Amino acid sequence: MTTTDPQASNGASNGAHAEAPQNLRRLLSVARGRRRPLIHLQHNPDPDALGSATALQYMFERFFGVQAVLAYTGRVGRVENRAMLRHLNIKIRPSYKIDYDDYDLVAVVDTHPGSGTCQLPKGVVPDVVIDHHPSLNSLEDVEFPYYDPEFGSTSTMVGALLVENGIPISTRVATALTYGIKTDTMDLSRGATPLDERIFREVYAVADKRVLSHIERARVPQEYFVVLERALRRAQVTDFALTTFLGEIDHSDMVAEVADLLFRLDGIKWVMVSGFNGPLLYCSIRALAGKDVKAGAVAREISSGKGGGHDTFAAAQIPIPESEDADPGQMYEDLRERFLKEVRAKKSLTRPLTVPPGAQTSDSVSQSRGEALAREADREAEARERS
Q1: d(CA 169, CA 162)
Q2: Low-confidence ranges of the chain (pLDDT < 50)
Q3: Which of 201, 221, 263, 302 has the maximal Cβ count within 10 Å?
Q4: Rg of the Cα atoms in the chain
Q5: 331 neighbors 304 (Cβ within 8 angstroms)
Q6: d(CA 147, CA 109)
Q7: What is the C-alpha to C-alpha distance for residues 349 and 341, in angstroms, rounded to an integer?
Q8: Do 302 and 261 reside in the same domain of the chain?
Q9: d(Cα 10, Cα 13) in Å, to the nearest integer?
Q10: Nearest 5 degrees, angle CA 242-CA 309-CA 50?
Q11: Residue-number span of the structural domain to which 337 is assigned
């Protein structure tokens, strides 16, 4: 559904997208006659942003013969995402190298104005917004707001415009959409609807499986394991919640990746992972689906409106004050306090996730006692021999 109502649904859960022809006509109507389109991605583009932007770029070229520029404001940090750019030959340009006044159409994908992940230059109002992230912001100034949080991914939304209208998809675009849907829905296990599953089947059939394998198995640097070790060492289990602080990180994607990993811990209902890079403290939240579980609302509350997301996964980006005494570590501690209070976890039930080096455990104590007894027996035997 083309809508400005954040609570509206287009029937994605039914597995049918009856409004796909209408949405395509409206998109083409807005784009017709524009010769210099620009597609603005979310701050740190993930596979869903890259997949949906690549497919929209393909549509502009196919229908109008124009090459849209893909722009982003942050960085692509995760090795799988960089591999996606490399293997699919996706060209993106940093926004600081772009004069937005040079473009006669601005489309925003996988984010929306008013969101912390949408950092459009001041005064720029997009002509098109395509996004599935929940929002409390109005899109009434956008000429074509294709917005619906019922979808599991933005790649599904753009893919539906192609598939449901019978538009042939190239292998390259199908591969990008496949990986975008796959990652944002965690292999269709998180927030996926029947329509997400249907579009995924259609694009996966055309996708290059060898390239997908190369992207998913991209090799990681040693720093990845350094941060992972730090995350595990600092992690604390509080009742049914797990929290950890990564410290300074090379890219914000690591926060979400660690959150997904730690959420696998048995008995855990909530996870919050935080780390900082440059002027921002990043936070990712994961939650076990249930009645009244609203991870997005929790993210907004604990970050004073700097976060948001879906019911079971959310994120926040909190500016770090420029003062010399600004302490990201203390900011995390304050954030953790608010998080535990918000999810009602009992702080008295706090323990480390892993045992710190040198800590005494029942096994180590037993071993130490055994070694002490053995040494004592050796000394007694030596004394008997001397006597």
Answers
A1: 7
A2: 1-2, 4-11, 362-364
A3: 302
A4: 25
A5: no
A6: 10
A7: 13
A8: yes
A9: 8
A10: 110
A11: 224-352
Q: Decide if 103 contacts 36 (C-beta within 8 A).
A: yes
Environment class of 62 (CB within 10 Å of its CB; exposed 0-12, middle 13-18, buried 19+)? middle
214 alpha-carbon distance from chain centroid: 20
Tokens 């990845």 belong to 224
pLDDT of residue 374: 60
- Contact between 122 and 147 under an 8 Å Cβ cutoff? The reply is no
Pairing of strands 236-238, 270-277: unpaired
- CA 121, chain centre distance (Å): 23
Edge-first strand listing for the sheet containing 37-40:
93-94, 69-72, 37-40, 105-109, 128-131, 144-147
Tokens in use for 182?
A: 């796959």
What distance in Å separates the CA atoms of residue 279 and residue 317, rounded to the nearest whole number? 10
Same domain? 206 vs 296: no
Residue 287 sits in the same domain as residue 210: no
Whether 346 and 240 share a structural domain: yes
Q: What is the pLDDT of residues 196-231, one digit of tens each?
A: 999 999 999 999 999 999 999 999 999 999 999 999
Q: Are residues 27 and 138 in the same domain?
A: yes
